[in-house]
Structures are given as C-alpha cells and as structure tokens.
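All the exercises in this workshop are built on plain-text protein records. The record below serves as our worked example for the rest of this section.
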Amino acid sequence: MAKKKFNNRPFAYHQEIELEIAALTNLGAGLGRIPLPGSLAPGTSALELAAHPSPGGWVVMVPFALPGERVRARVFRNHPNYSEADLVEVLAPSPHRVPPRCPLFGRCGGCQYQNLAYAEQLRWKQRQVQELLQHLAGVEFAVAPVIASPRQFGYRSKITPHFAAPRGGALCRPAALGAPPSNGRPGGPSLPDPRDLPIGFLKQGSRYDIVDVPRCDIATDGINARLDQVRAAVRPQILAGGFPRGATLLLREAAEGVVTDHDAVITEEIPLAGAAGAGSRESATPAAWSAATPAAKAARLQLKFLARDFFQNNPSILPAFAAYVRDQAAAGGARFLLDAYCGSGLFALAAAPRFAGVAGVEISETSIAFARENAVANQIANSTFLAGDAAAIFAGIAFPPGETVVVIDPPRKGCDEPFLHQLLAYGPRAVVYVSCDPATQMRDLRRLLAAGYALAAVQPFDLFPQTRHLECVITLRKDAAG
C-alpha cells in the first residue's frame, strides 16, 4: 500500500531498485546513481523529468551501503533532487566490508561505519573534508591524512542514553506480576512493564523512536560496566511516573571513575605530547602525533569541570589533538594566544608554555571559574580568563592583534555572525579553527579567506571512530598581501 501523501516521483513507495554505490556522503550514507527513464513511475512527463536534472543518473542515498557495492534498496522517500532508500541486500560486497561488532548496528543511529574497515573510514573522512573544502569554501588545498584514534572501540568517555515519556503517565507492571492495573479498576488494562521501555539512543532514520541499548561498544569498559546499574536504578522512577517528559541520563568516565551526576565536579588528566619545550614538534609529520614516545608524553595537564559541561570525549587521542592545536598556534611566531571558546581552559593551558601570555574568553561564568582554578592547579602563571559578553567578546583583551593567534572551537553550528564580525574587526595574526562539523567550518572559512587570511594547514582527527563524525583543525594566517 502506498504511503499517504507520498511523493511517488521518480519512485513508488517501497519500490525496490538495484544500483552501484559510488561514494559515502558526509552524513555517512552510501550514494549511488540510477538512470531515471527506466525507473520512473508511469505517467512521468518530459516536463517533470526536465525539472529534476540528474547528470549521470538520479541520486539515491542508502545508509550502510559501501562504495564499490551493488545493492538492492527499498525507496522510502523522494526529495526534489534525490531519493532515500533502505538497504535490502548486498548483491556484490565491498572488499572493505567487515562484520560489525555491535548487534544493534543498523538499528541504532549512533554508528554508521562499523561495517567498514577502519583504514577505509579514515580515507573516506579525508576525502569528505577535501570535497567540503572544494564545494563549500571554493578552494583547492591539500587535506592531510586523518590522524587515527589509538582506540577504535571503547574510546568514548561520555554517553547520554535517554528515554521518552511513558504514555499514559505512570507505568504499571502487568497484573501477573502482582501490580495493580493502570486504571485503578479490577480487570482494567495494564500499561507495558517499564522494563520494556527502551533506554538508549535514537533509531536509525528516526527523530523520535529510541532503540534500547544495554551496551555501547564505542563507550569505555568502565561506562559499560556501570550502564546496567544505571538503567536498573532509573526504572522504578519511570514506574512511579517520575519523568513525565522523558529524560537524558549521563555516564562520564574521568579520574574519579564513572560519574552519573550532571553537576559533579570531575577531573580529566591529559598527557601532552611534545610538551618538553618550545619548538620541539613544529616540524613533526602528522603520523608522529599518534606515535609520540612515553618521554614526550611526560607532561600532564589536569583539568576540572562539571560532568555535564562540554569536553572532548575521546581521551585516547586527546593528547595528540591538544598538542597539534598548540603547535599550530605557536608555529606562526605569535607571542600571545587567545582562546575564544575556552571552556575550562584546555587549549589555552596546553599552549601556555609556548607563549608570553595566553587568555581565554567564555560566555559561561562557571567555566571561567574552573579555567582559573585549573591554571592555579597546573602552576600556569601567564594566563588570564575572562567571562565575556557575547556582544563584546574581545573587549577585555589587551594583546596586540598583530602578535596574537586566536584559537576557536565553536559549537557544531559554527560561529555566529556577531562573533565573526568581532573576530575580523580584531584582526589577529593567525586563527586556528577547531570544529566537530567541517560543513559549518567551511562556511565560516569563506568569510576568513575573504577577509585576507590564507590557509596554512587542514588536519582532520578521528575523534569518533565507527561514526561519520570527525574533528577538523584548520590553520589560517594573515595574508601579507591582504
């Protein structure tokens, strides 16, 4: 039966098609093309065909299908210029296809690449950054190979399982287990047992449905050891109707162990690669970041912050990641560093030994308080942290712009217009832009290039193995001609 209000051009609802997968999108889906004329639903006019140009064929996106594969897929949505389809069968598998570790892979929306060999994950992520750079920023520039995560599974130090609000208010166990019926009348219907209520992550392709996740293979062993206990503890509260709107749980592993209190103060200890002295790693190749010697990792940075606060969630790659940002900032010869989204002080404090002075600015006064405490705890005297107003983020900064490098690590949405305007008005010597969403990063890059900055390096880091996500660090320096 056709789905109500389904747009059946060019394919009918649940029509099955066969196609070759040529690439992966930056959303992690396989992308293929299929010739339109032979696949159009009956009655499609030449005018309609002309309205949907498709050089090389109509684009179809198929999650969990891999480049080089021939697949059978079932269409579930037609957009004006592409279709989405579910993978039905792999007719000719890729040589890079591997068995996924998690039994929920393909249902849980958390991972997209568990079926793809890790070396290929890195290669495609590099290619995706390259394509975004070309298409969104409009520039040709060599993207460095992606720095691999030392841990491919069991790396994630924070997860936030959630559950939806139970329908009908408080849930009751079925009468067979001795619980009263849900409507309070003998023989009345009972709602589902709360033990059947899914606690986990969004289902693949859904904005509302939740998949029950008793174990997450990309989370640390410590988190998984605690997950059963946390899930069991929350179920009586669900039974009592304590979550009329559902809730999000927190499990975060830090120096204190696995913490579940959103407001707990926790400690992250970061060994910093190449922290022995200024200039020790400017000439290192990217591969060296993953293979730093124990001696190079001797210096440790200790940071405290609230468990609910943003912090990078892959400790295994964080030493190399923080060291790279520090060294890119120092390589241009600036004497001062400004960390414009400083949080609890990660980049500013990691870089402080390389600069005459560092400053961090953050809208959150709580984060600034932690950053100041962290500077004292790590005996870093050349740092200042300011709680900045969003409308005047650089107002309290005394560093001369021509001698200052600015590090920015904005939210996934990228920099907003007021911030970019202030950054460009300040006009620092260099900018090191850290982003968890290269698409919004490339959008902002256009503004920086137009303002006279030149690309010096584009370095992706794989902070999120088995998923489509990555972190990308772009270094820009003031173009002397601009």
Q: What stands out?
A: The radius of gyration is 25 Å. Helices lie at 46-50, 118-136, 221-239, 318-331, 346-351, 365-377, 417-426, 438-450.
